[in-house]
Design goal:
Elements lengths: L2 H4 L16 H22 L3 E5 L2 E2 L6 E4 L2 E4 L5 E4 L3 E4 L12 E8 L7 E6 L7 E6 L3 E6 L16 H8 L3 E10 L2 E2 L18 E7 L5 E4 L10 E2 L2 E3 L2 E8 L10 E7 L3 E4 L2 E14 L9 E11 L21 E8 L1
Antiparallel strand pairs: 1-4, 2-3, 3-6, 4-5, 7-10, 7-11, 8-9, 11-12, 13-22, 14-17, 15-16, 16-21, 17-21, 18-22, 19-20, 20-21
Length: 335
């Protein structure tokens, strides 16, 4: 059911006190609500088993039991089983060569001709009519071809029409069985079924900001002598921040971001051009402002080797916010 065919109703049905209603009015209302619901299912969900529909059958059983469940087909139609169903195993001895026979057990939405009357009422001065139809799901055993490699993936439906219905997700696979001597040779396998609720996997995207728009902020105490040192390294009296655009990732919710600086870490020392000094930075993802699906703010705290009375040309003087040529590589994980 394409979306263009699903929304065929252009008028909203309206009622008023004293209106004479016809059966067609109420049928149109019910049909409108049903098709809008199917369009919702088709647009926002995928075909498969939404819940339940457990298929129980052990080795030696001549029947399988299907538990109540809910499934969707590719047209968005709900296939609902409200009570357990017992289905006989296909009565076949072997495949003609002394081997097992394999089947899919499928379920599908009933056609209008398959619907059974659940309630009939007498009309007023008119013949009786059906007022409730029972939408019972239709189960079908689909014969699979033999596989010379004993690989389940190589077995395909023999009937081309049934194969096409399965491919189009109008027949939903519930299980696969192996039949020999009119009974199950192995327990029922449900590995072939598809869930209407796909596993939620994290979305991971990454990117590179080649020219961050760095903003500098001095520490409250910018006296070089009071700048903290750690492990032979000393922080510069300012820190830098930049807003990183992540629109290209297409995140729907704020992900968890990680970032690192890309670029050189060793720079020549003005007092001894033949020597190099280390300049690096501590990296932090700011929580204010909070990261969003389209951006985050990175904060870096530059530090250098503690070499007395030596100035590293990459950052000019100790109080000048000259920025090394660093780029920002980032990654976001949206759960």
């Amino acid at each position: 059911m394409a979306a263009s065919n699903a929304t065929q109703f252009r008028e909203r049905i309206q009622f008023f006190n004293g209106e004479r209603l016809f059966a067609s009015d109420l049928q149109d209302l019910e049909s409108f609500n049903r098709q809008i619901r199917w369009l919702h299912n088709q647009s926002l969900h995928q075909p498969g088993v939404g819940g339940g529909y457990a298929v129980i059958g052990n080795k030696g059983d001549r029947q399988v039991v299907v538990a109540p469940g809910y499934a969707l087909d590719s047209l968005g139609r709900e296939i609902i089983l409200t009570e357990s169903e017992t289905i006989p195993v296909p009565p076949v001895a072997d495949n003609g060569s002394g081997g097992s026979v394999f089947y899919y057990l499928t379920v599908s939405y009933p056609s209008d001709t398959d619907l059974k009357a659940a309630e009939i009422r007498q009309g007023i001065c008119l013949p009786a009519g059906v007022v409730r139809l029972r939408e019972e799901p239709v189960f079908c055993w689909v014969l699979l071809s033999d596989s010379t490699t004993n690989n389940t993936a190589n077995r395909q439906p023999v009937d081309a029409n049934l194969k096409d219905l399965i491919r189009k997700q109008l027949y939903i696979i519930l299980a696969q069985v192996e039949v020999f001597n009119c009974q199950l040779k192995q327990p029922v396998s449900t590995a072939q079924r598809r869930s209407a609720r796909p596993a939620k996997q994290p979305r991971i995207a990454c990117g590179m900001e080649a020219n961050p728009d760095w903003k500098s902020t001095n520490f409250s105490d910018s006296n070089q002598a009071d700048i903290p040192t750690f492990g032979g390294l000393s922080l510069f009296p300012y820190w830098l921040s930049a807003k990183i655009d992540t629109t290209s990732a297409g995140f729907q919710a704020a992900p968890i971001y990680q970032a690192r600086l890309v670029g050189p870490r060793l720079f020549p020392i003005s007092a001894n051009p033949a020597a190099s000094g280390l300049v690096d930075a501590l990296v932090d993802i700011a929580t204010t402002p909070a990261p969003t699906p389209t951006s985050f703010t990175i904060e870096i705290y530059p530090f250098r080797s503690s070499v007395p009375q030596v100035v590293i040309t990459a950052v000019a003087g100790p109080n000048d916010p000259v920025i090394p040529p660093w780029q920002v590589a980032w990654m976001g994980v949206e759960s």
